[in-house]
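Q: What structure does this chain adopt?
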Amino acid sequence: MFRLFRAVLIRDLTLALRQKSDILNTVFFFIVVVTLVPLGIGPDQQLLRLIAPGVVWVAALLAALLSLPRLFANDFADGTLEQMLLSGEPLTVIVIAKVFAHWLTTGIPLTVISVVFALMFDLNAEVTVALITALFIGTPVLSLEGSVGAALTLGVRGGSVLTSLLVLPLYIPVLIFGAGAAEAVSVGVSSSAYFLIVGALTLFSLVVMPIATAAALRIAAE
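A:
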């Protein structure tokens, strides 16, 4: 199982590096969304500090949605997905490897770039650490839950829009508690409860979503 996981992970990372435009589009979209907010709201530094965690999380959520089609679409189009289904290998392991590759090429870059935005919004060190930690713990949820929507809409016309409609309600809890962790630190309240909830959401998604995604892929292949 580990060999299968490693093989799929290396394959997907290699393909992602060959198609750098997909990763750059996601990162650029994230940068544009976060950068435009101060221009629209104005120079009130106190207000910008207050809304910064929510803005970064919403931008990360939208950027993750933008990147979801690349999870399975190419494999579905060229027949690779069908070969995976016929191989007899555990499909959930394949799904976890593909989702992990997606997180490495989407969640990690967005988390790293958020450090720059924390400086731009003039967040102090404690709030910045809370924001980055929440993103690091919570962004896997965006990939795991998004994989279900991406699998369900394979081959459907207008699938990207339908994926957004299916996945957005699932993203709301991690959005609330992920942004709430940094906001709690900014007002001097303990953020441990927020981190525990975000961590629980990640663990729950890691257990449930690969199974749901594997079932959705089998349905799409039929």
